[in-house]
Design goal:
Order of helices and strands: HHEEEHHEEHEEHEEE
Strand content: 15-25%
Radius of gyration: 18 Å
Helix content: 25-40%
Shape: globular
Largest sheet: 10 strands, antiparallel
Protein backbone atom coordinates (compact mmCIF):
# COMPACT_ATOMS: atom_id res chain seq x y z
CA UNK A 1 0.00 0.00 0.00
CA UNK A 2 2.70 2.61 0.79
CA UNK A 3 4.32 1.90 -2.60
CA UNK A 4 1.00 2.43 -4.41
CA UNK A 5 0.45 5.73 -2.60
CA UNK A 6 3.97 6.88 -3.45
CA UNK A 7 3.50 6.00 -7.10
CA UNK A 8 0.17 7.79 -7.18
CA UNK A 9 1.74 10.89 -5.68
CA UNK A 10 4.57 10.85 -8.22
CA UNK A 11 2.18 10.34 -11.14
CA UNK A 12 -0.05 13.17 -9.99
CA UNK A 13 2.95 15.45 -9.59
CA UNK A 14 4.18 14.67 -13.09
CA UNK A 15 0.73 15.25 -14.56
CA UNK A 16 0.42 18.50 -12.66
CA UNK A 17 3.73 19.78 -13.97
CA UNK A 18 2.56 19.10 -17.52
CA UNK A 19 -0.76 20.83 -16.92
CA UNK A 20 1.03 24.05 -16.03
CA UNK A 21 3.06 24.20 -19.23
CA UNK A 22 1.72 26.63 -21.84
CA UNK A 23 0.21 24.61 -24.68
CA UNK A 24 2.50 26.15 -27.29
CA UNK A 25 5.66 25.35 -25.34
CA UNK A 26 4.95 22.07 -23.56
CA UNK A 27 7.92 19.77 -24.03
CA UNK A 28 10.05 22.36 -25.83
CA UNK A 29 10.18 25.32 -23.45
CA UNK A 30 13.47 26.76 -22.22
CA UNK A 31 13.49 26.94 -18.40
CA UNK A 32 16.20 29.61 -18.60
CA UNK A 33 14.35 31.86 -21.05
CA UNK A 34 13.64 34.62 -18.53
CA UNK A 35 17.21 34.60 -17.28
CA UNK A 36 18.53 34.85 -20.82
CA UNK A 37 16.29 37.85 -21.54
CA UNK A 38 17.22 39.68 -18.35
CA UNK A 39 20.91 38.81 -18.17
CA UNK A 40 21.58 38.67 -21.89
CA UNK A 41 19.56 41.63 -23.14
CA UNK A 42 17.93 43.87 -20.54
CA UNK A 43 20.92 44.35 -18.23
CA UNK A 44 23.49 44.89 -21.02
CA UNK A 45 21.16 47.34 -22.80
CA UNK A 46 20.68 49.28 -19.57
CA UNK A 47 24.40 49.34 -18.79
CA UNK A 48 25.56 50.22 -22.30
CA UNK A 49 22.73 52.38 -23.62
CA UNK A 50 20.60 53.44 -20.65
CA UNK A 51 17.69 51.55 -22.22
CA UNK A 52 16.19 48.51 -20.43
CA UNK A 53 14.52 46.97 -23.51
CA UNK A 54 13.06 44.44 -23.92
CA UNK A 55 12.35 44.99 -20.21
CA UNK A 56 10.46 48.11 -19.15
CA UNK A 57 12.78 48.75 -16.19
CA UNK A 58 16.17 47.62 -14.95
CA UNK A 59 17.14 48.83 -11.46
CA UNK A 60 20.87 48.45 -10.82
CA UNK A 61 21.33 51.21 -8.27
CA UNK A 62 22.62 48.66 -5.74
CA UNK A 63 24.52 46.62 -8.34
CA UNK A 64 23.54 43.72 -10.56
CA UNK A 65 23.83 41.26 -7.65
CA UNK A 66 21.00 43.09 -5.85
CA UNK A 67 19.05 44.57 -8.73
CA UNK A 68 15.85 43.63 -10.51
CA UNK A 69 14.19 43.97 -13.87
CA UNK A 70 10.54 44.42 -14.82
CA UNK A 71 9.40 42.58 -17.93
CA UNK A 72 5.99 42.53 -19.62
CA UNK A 73 4.66 38.98 -19.54
CA UNK A 74 3.50 37.54 -22.86
CA UNK A 75 0.17 36.57 -21.27
CA UNK A 76 -2.43 39.25 -20.67
CA UNK A 77 -2.58 42.98 -21.23
CA UNK A 78 -1.50 43.98 -17.75
CA UNK A 79 0.71 41.21 -16.33
CA UNK A 80 4.31 42.10 -15.51
CA UNK A 81 7.14 40.08 -13.97
CA UNK A 82 9.70 41.31 -11.47
CA UNK A 83 12.91 39.32 -11.96
CA UNK A 84 16.19 39.53 -10.02
CA UNK A 85 19.25 40.48 -12.03
CA UNK A 86 21.16 37.85 -10.03
CA UNK A 87 20.76 34.15 -10.81
CA UNK A 88 18.11 33.00 -8.30
CA UNK A 89 16.34 29.78 -9.19
CA UNK A 90 12.98 30.28 -7.43
CA UNK A 91 11.13 30.48 -4.12
CA UNK A 92 13.38 27.77 -2.66
CA UNK A 93 16.63 29.70 -3.22
CA UNK A 94 18.53 30.16 0.07
CA UNK A 95 19.73 33.57 -1.15
CA UNK A 96 16.22 34.91 -0.55
CA UNK A 97 16.55 34.23 3.17
CA UNK A 98 20.01 35.72 3.68
CA UNK A 99 20.15 38.51 6.29
CA UNK A 100 20.92 41.13 3.63
CA UNK A 101 18.68 39.70 0.89
CA UNK A 102 16.98 42.28 -1.35
CA UNK A 103 13.23 42.59 -0.80
CA UNK A 104 11.99 41.64 -4.25
CA UNK A 105 8.36 41.74 -3.13
CA UNK A 106 8.79 45.39 -2.16
CA UNK A 107 10.09 46.06 -5.68
CA UNK A 108 7.15 44.12 -7.12
CA UNK A 109 4.67 46.26 -5.21
CA UNK A 110 6.26 49.38 -6.64
CA UNK A 111 6.06 47.81 -10.11
CA UNK A 112 2.26 47.83 -9.96
CA UNK A 113 2.51 51.23 -11.64
CA UNK A 114 3.16 49.41 -14.92
CA UNK A 115 -0.12 47.54 -14.51
CA UNK A 116 -1.87 50.86 -13.89
CA UNK A 117 -0.22 52.42 -16.93
CA UNK A 118 -1.35 49.52 -19.10
CA UNK A 119 -4.89 49.98 -17.79
CA UNK A 120 -4.83 53.76 -18.11
CA UNK A 121 -5.90 54.43 -14.52
CA UNK A 122 -4.90 53.86 -10.90
CA UNK A 123 -6.00 50.76 -9.02
CA UNK A 124 -7.20 50.44 -5.42
CA UNK A 125 -4.54 48.58 -3.49
CA UNK A 126 -6.88 45.64 -2.83
CA UNK A 127 -7.11 45.05 -6.61
CA UNK A 128 -3.39 44.26 -6.96
CA UNK A 129 -1.74 40.89 -6.37
CA UNK A 130 1.86 39.65 -6.36
CA UNK A 131 2.54 35.93 -6.73
CA UNK A 132 5.36 33.38 -6.82
CA UNK A 133 4.53 29.80 -7.80
CA UNK A 134 5.90 26.53 -6.41
CA UNK A 135 8.46 24.46 -8.28
CA UNK A 136 5.67 22.27 -9.71
CA UNK A 137 3.67 25.24 -11.00
CA UNK A 138 6.37 27.08 -12.91
CA UNK A 139 8.15 26.62 -16.21
CA UNK A 140 11.10 28.93 -15.46
CA UNK A 141 14.07 28.36 -13.20
CA UNK A 142 14.61 32.04 -12.51
CA UNK A 143 12.68 33.70 -9.72
CA UNK A 144 9.87 35.87 -11.06
CA UNK A 145 7.06 37.60 -9.21
CA UNK A 146 3.81 37.94 -11.14
CA UNK A 147 2.30 41.43 -10.77
CA UNK A 148 -1.26 41.94 -11.94
CA UNK A 149 -4.87 42.49 -10.95
CA UNK A 150 -6.31 40.06 -8.42
CA UNK A 151 -9.38 38.02 -9.36
CA UNK A 152 -12.71 39.49 -8.33
CA UNK A 153 -13.80 36.37 -6.42
CA UNK A 154 -10.50 36.32 -4.52
CA UNK A 155 -10.88 39.99 -3.66
CA UNK A 156 -14.39 39.34 -2.34
CA UNK A 157 -13.23 36.39 -0.23
CA UNK A 158 -10.39 38.38 1.32
CA UNK A 159 -12.76 41.26 2.07
CA UNK A 160 -14.96 38.82 4.04
CA UNK A 161 -11.96 37.34 5.85
CA UNK A 162 -10.16 40.62 6.47
CA UNK A 163 -11.13 41.05 10.12
CA UNK A 164 -10.12 37.48 10.99
CA UNK A 165 -6.60 37.65 9.51
CA UNK A 166 -4.03 38.34 12.20
CA UNK A 167 -0.37 39.23 12.54
CA UNK A 168 0.68 35.55 12.63
CA UNK A 169 0.15 32.82 10.06
CA UNK A 170 -3.00 30.75 10.40
CA UNK A 171 -5.39 28.77 8.18
CA UNK A 172 -8.20 30.81 6.66
CA UNK A 173 -11.76 29.75 7.37
CA UNK A 174 -12.76 29.24 3.73
CA UNK A 175 -10.95 28.41 0.49
CA UNK A 176 -9.36 31.26 -1.44
CA UNK A 177 -9.73 30.76 -5.16
CA UNK A 178 -10.71 27.17 -4.47
CA UNK A 179 -7.65 26.28 -2.36
CA UNK A 180 -6.92 26.03 1.40
CA UNK A 181 -4.55 28.92 2.04
CA UNK A 182 -2.93 30.12 5.23
CA UNK A 183 -2.80 33.89 5.73
CA UNK A 184 -1.29 36.67 7.78
CA UNK A 185 -1.36 40.47 7.55
CA UNK A 186 1.31 43.13 7.61
CA UNK A 187 0.58 46.80 8.02
CA UNK A 188 1.93 49.77 6.11
CA UNK A 189 1.57 51.39 2.71
CA UNK A 190 4.60 49.52 1.27
CA UNK A 191 6.47 46.29 1.92
CA UNK A 192 9.61 48.08 3.07
CA UNK A 193 10.66 46.31 6.25
CA UNK A 194 8.42 43.30 5.49
CA UNK A 195 10.04 40.55 3.42
CA UNK A 196 7.35 37.96 2.61
CA UNK A 197 9.87 35.21 1.84
CA UNK A 198 11.35 35.51 5.33
CA UNK A 199 7.95 35.88 6.98
CA UNK A 200 6.91 32.60 5.38
CA UNK A 201 10.14 30.70 6.13
CA UNK A 202 10.22 31.86 9.76
CA UNK A 203 6.49 31.88 10.47
CA UNK A 204 5.26 28.38 9.57
CA UNK A 205 6.84 25.24 11.06
CA UNK A 206 8.97 23.32 8.52
CA UNK A 207 8.29 25.86 5.76
CA UNK A 208 11.96 26.88 5.53
CA UNK A 209 12.98 23.29 4.76
CA UNK A 210 10.44 22.86 1.97
CA UNK A 211 9.96 26.27 0.37
CA UNK A 212 9.99 24.81 -3.14
CA UNK A 213 6.63 23.15 -2.51
CA UNK A 214 4.95 26.43 -1.53
CA UNK A 215 3.39 29.36 -3.29
CA UNK A 216 3.43 32.87 -1.86
CA UNK A 217 0.90 35.57 -2.73
CA UNK A 218 0.66 39.16 -1.50
CA UNK A 219 -2.52 41.20 -1.95
CA UNK A 220 -2.94 44.85 -1.04
CA UNK A 221 -5.59 45.59 1.58
CA UNK A 222 -7.29 48.41 3.49
CA UNK A 223 -7.91 47.35 7.06
CA UNK A 224 -10.09 48.83 9.80
CA UNK A 225 -9.81 52.58 10.03
CA UNK A 226 -8.71 52.71 6.39
CA UNK A 227 -5.24 51.58 7.45
CA UNK A 228 -3.18 50.32 4.49
CA UNK A 229 -1.54 46.94 4.59
CA UNK A 230 -1.25 43.57 2.90
CA UNK A 231 -2.61 40.05 3.16
CA UNK A 232 0.04 37.35 2.68
CA UNK A 233 -1.19 33.95 1.48
CA UNK A 234 0.57 30.61 1.22
CA UNK A 235 -0.49 27.19 -0.01
CA UNK A 236 1.55 24.00 -0.32
CA UNK A 237 1.67 21.34 -3.02
CA UNK A 238 -0.74 18.45 -2.59
CA UNK A 239 -0.79 16.49 -5.86
CA UNK A 240 -3.31 13.97 -4.52
CA UNK A 241 -5.96 16.69 -4.83
CA UNK A 242 -4.26 18.29 -7.84
CA UNK A 243 -3.15 21.33 -5.86
CA UNK A 244 0.20 22.42 -7.27
CA UNK A 245 0.50 25.67 -5.31
CA UNK A 246 0.05 28.01 -8.26
CA UNK A 247 -0.62 31.32 -6.55
CA UNK A 248 -0.53 33.24 -9.84
CA UNK A 249 -3.88 31.66 -10.63
CA UNK A 250 -5.40 34.00 -8.07
CA UNK A 251 -4.61 36.84 -10.44
CA UNK A 252 -6.82 38.08 -13.27
CA UNK A 253 -4.63 38.42 -16.32
CA UNK A 254 -7.49 40.00 -18.25
CA UNK A 255 -7.85 42.59 -15.48
CA UNK A 256 -11.58 42.39 -16.17
CA UNK A 257 -14.51 44.73 -15.70
CA UNK A 258 -14.78 46.31 -12.30
CA UNK A 259 -11.11 47.19 -12.06
Amino acid sequence: MPRIIALSFAAAAALGAMLFLPAATAGVFDPSALWKIVNGRCVPNQQQHGDPKPCVEVDLKNGAARGHAVLKDINGKTQYLVIPTARIVGIEAPELLAPDAPNYFAAAWEARRFVETALGHDLPRENVGLAVNSILARTQNQLHIHVDCIRGDVRATLARLRSSIGDQWGPVSEPVGGHPYWAMRVMGPTLDGHNPFKLLADGIPKARANMKMRTLVVVGMQFEGDAPGFVLLTDRVNPLIFDFAAGARLEDHSCGAGH
